[in-house]
Amino acid sequence: MKIGLQIPNFTWPGGPAAIASTLKDIVQTADDAGFASIWVMDHFFQIGGPDRVMLGPAEDEMLEGYSTLNYIAALTQKAKLGTMVTGVIYRQPGLLIKTVTTLDVLSGGRAYFGVGAAWFEREALGLGVPYPPISERFERLEETLQIALQMWSETIAPFNGKYYHLNETLNHPQSLQRPHPPILIGGSGEKKTLRLVAQYADACNLFAWGGPEAIQAKLDVLKQHCDTLGRDYNTIEKTTLSTANLSPSGQTPAEIIAQCQALAKIGVQHVIFNMPNTQDITPLETFAKEIIPAVTAF
What we know:
- This protein is α/β, with parallel strands linked by helices.
- The protein has a single domain (2-295), classed as Alpha-Beta Barrel (TIM Barrel).
- The chain is 40% helix and 15% strand.
- It has helices spanning 19-33, 65-75, 93-106, 121-126, 134-151, 193-200, 211-229, 253-265, 282-295, and strands at residues 2-7, 37-40, 80-83, 86-87, 113-116, 159-160, 165-166, 183-186, 203-207, 237-243, 270-274.
- The strands form two sheets. A nine-stranded parallel sheet has the order 3-2-1-11-10-9-8-5-4.
- α1 links the parallel β1 (2-7) and β2.
- α2 runs parallel beside α3 (93-106).
- The longest helix is centred in the C-terminal third of the chain and has 19 residues, at 211-229.
- It is globular, with a radius of gyration of 19 Å.
- 42% of the residues are buried.
């Protein structure tokens, strides 16, 4: 099993002037600690709310995702890098694939293409981005996946979809990872999201807060879609996202190891954690010494 780190919060001591140095300390420690991946959100406002207590109000600091990943790429050597996950409505698909390709090239072949249908209406409308109904967002997501696969292929040709029209899918330099950076689709919708995973993606990401039984149910649906489409279910990387709280009042390393073991038993291969106190560095060091070595064998 692999362990990843998501960094969803940039409201740290020292304010905006200290963000760059704090982020540097976090990602270099995580890279040295053996985290397999580092992720940031593709949001422009913080996503506070009753179910996201640790993240805070919309006014909290939030960095643009791909600029941040390119900064992280220059500071790290081993961890793969991605957004958890890009909202498909925020960028034209051709430019988005060029952006992910650039990250892959400059990081030495370490990019994931994390993508989803988008959900945060407030930030979209706040920044002047059209926010169509969910059915259209999923149609745009599917066209974006088709464009991605065409741009990362040897085919340079027009693409004419319902929403997107590209005269030529030229993408040079190509990604270092071939045939392309792994495509990860975030979300657990059974009819649309998991069908898109089965048809187009190399990885899925599911929230782990429902526990192993809930995740198993979603994976069973994914397998059904794979069977229908003739896709080998075992070729899809199963990832989860949850929170690890290693503060004195939070979890113990043993509890996190047990959580990972339970997920491994149902086929999860890559567990991604965010942490409310990542900037303290100590939680990352605990992962390095106690948790990552223990779960590697799962």
